[in-house]
Design goal:
Bound molecules: adenosine-5'-diphosphate, the ligand N[C@@H](CCC(=O)OP(=O)(O)O)C(=O)O
CATH topology: Carbamate kinase
Strand content: 15-25%
Helix content: 25-40%
Largest sheet: 8 strands, mixed
Number of helices: 9
Order of helices and strands: EHHEHHEHEEEHEEHHEHE
Strand order of the largest sheet: 3-4-2-1-7-9-10-8
Mean pLDDT: 93
CATH class: Alpha Beta
Number of strands: 10
CATH architecture: 3-Layer(aba) Sandwich
CATH superfamily: Acetylglutamate kinase-like
Distance between the termini: 20 Å
Shape: globular
Length: about 260
């Protein structure tokens, strides 16, 4: 049996991918959202500070307007994100309210981490929300994010956004929930012999060669962006656990130090 893990987890960032929030047929996974609200509210009551980075604007938006596929054109994608984000946050608000937990919404672009005053204001907002026991829920501001000339505002994926947020607010731990049990030594979506790695101490070029692309129709990052997030966390002397979000109460097991998923760092 594998040893229990020793994790620092006073300040925790949780990232949930579209695959955790939206079923493969496009329907919204309300059970997962409800469990997230339950787990995060319980964590708050145990004195932990929690930030949720949630994807799902596009996935929820597609469901809301009855589309099965993400359109190719950027303006349409941005319109769907606008529709989906407001729906997503109202679902979160309703589910967190069941546990008497208040939330706040932060829609971020990459440039706020470049401009010192913007950066300071965002950090102040995080600190003020956490001090008032409010759970910040973060997503990329998809409707304004672009990459043009010297105006680059796009993260493009929430895996890296979650690690940037986590390192900027000095979080001890990033918990990344996806549709897979952890990091394998090959893409399990095709390589049936791939085995789960319980601990990855360092992320280097050899680690990247084991990573493949996204598994779901709605997700964007795939494993490469998760490894980039892990690399960023390790460089900041923090840790990341990648685990399956099919049942978000797995977060309790992670916090208890049980060897589930993959620990990076
Ligand atoms: N080495 C690997 N280990 C685990 N999963 C991998 C690996 N390489 C590629 N993948 C794929 O990455 C997917 C998770 O990324 P993604 O679809 O972007 O999820 P999310 O929506 O949670 O961000 C998995 O379902 C799997 O198909
Ligand atoms: N900002 C986008 C999420 C992009 C993204 O990184 O998605 P995912 O790979 O599911 O975490 C949205 O809310 O749809």
């Amino acid at each position: 049996m594998e040893a229990m893990r020793q994790l620092q987890a006073k300040r925790v960032v949780i990232k949930v991918g579209t695959s955790t929030l939206v079923y493969p047929d496009g329907a919204i996974n309300l059970r997962a959202i409800d469990q997230l609200a339950f787990v995060i509210s319980a964590m708050r009551h145990h004195g932990r500070e929690v930030v949720l980075v949630s994807s799902g604007a596009i996935g929820v938006g597609l469901n809301y307007i009855g589309l099965k596929q993400r359109p190719k054109a950027i303006p349409e994608q941005q319109a769907i994100a606008a529709i989906g984000q407001s729906e997503l946050i109202s679902i979160y608000k309703e589910r967190f309210a069941v546990y008497e937990q208040k939330i706040g919404q932060l829609l971020l672009t990459r440039d706020i981490f470049v401009y010192p005053k913007s950066h300071q204001n965002v950090m102040n907002t995080f600190e003020a929300l956490l001090a008032q026991n409010i759970v910040p829920i973060v997503n990329e501001n998809d409707t304004v994010a672009v990459d043009e000339l010297d105006h680059e505002t796009k993260f493009g994926d929430n895996d890296q956004l979650s690690a940037v947020v986590a390192t900027n607010i000095d979080a001890d731990l990033l918990i990344m929930l996806s549709d897979i049990d952890g990091f394998y030594d090959g893409n399990p979506n095709g390589d049936t012999g791939a085995t789960l790695l319980s601990h990855v101490a360092k992320v280097n070029q050899a680690t990247y060669t084991l990573a493949g692309g996204t598994g779901s129709r709605f997700g964007t990052g795939g494993m490469v962006t998760k490894l980039k997030a892990a690399e960023r966390m390790i460089k900041a002397d923090s840790q990341m656990v990648l685990a399956n979000g099919a049942d978000p109460t797995i977060i309790f097991q992670i916090l208890a130090g049980e060897p589930v998923g993959t620990l990076f760092g």
